[in-house]
Amino acid sequence: MAETRALAKVMLRKKSRGIIMDSTYNRYAVHEDKASLPDWFVEDEARHFRPNNVHLVTKEMIAEERKFLKEYNERPSKKVQEAKARKKKRLGKAMNKIKNKATIIAEQSEMSEGSKMKQIQKLYKKEKAKTKEDKKYVVSRNFNNVGNAKTPRGTKAVDRRMKKDTRAAKAKKRREKKGGGRR
């Protein structure tokens, strides 16, 4: 893959593409029937007569492409990146709310400093409890083996349908709580 990518980069330039195309036309491109030739001649030809390959792709270029491919494969998938970004955004919103509440508590004059600190710490502690590590849900492709799938500790195998149903149930509860929805 790395060699192909390096060669493709070289072939983007018209001149180098022409050189590569011209190097493919040589007397060794047509394979003759070697059965009718003597063995000593075939051996000698194999040793000495080889096409003069044009080396426009260097080992450094291939190594660079290998490095790029390795970095590319190590990146998390787009869905994982989006999920992390959503989580970070929610955490930022929650922290802003806590900061606002903390400033309101800090501005109250009838409270002692110790009780203010305790209340502020209580707010942060509550948010920290919400953001603790949850179970990782692994979407299983084998639907028969979802319930008793052997998974590492802290993970749970689920199927897509189950995830969709649980999300829909939670959304329905939220709508009913707000007072909307059908009756």
Automatic annotation (TrEMBL):
The lineage of its organism: Eukaryota, Sar, Alveolata, Ciliophora, Intramacronucleata. It comes from Halteria grandinella. Residues 77-96, 144-183 are annotated as: Disordered. It comes from the Eukaryota. Pfam families: Spb1_C. One of its GO terms (cellular component) is nucleus. GO terms for molecular function: methyltransferase activity. Residues 85-96, 169-183 have a biased composition (Basic residues). This is Ribosomal RNA methyltransferase SPB1-like C-terminal domain-containing protein. Residues 156-168 have a biased composition (Basic and acidic residues). Residues 2-173 form the Ribosomal RNA methyltransferase SPB1-like C-terminal domain. One of its GO terms (biological process) is rRNA processing.
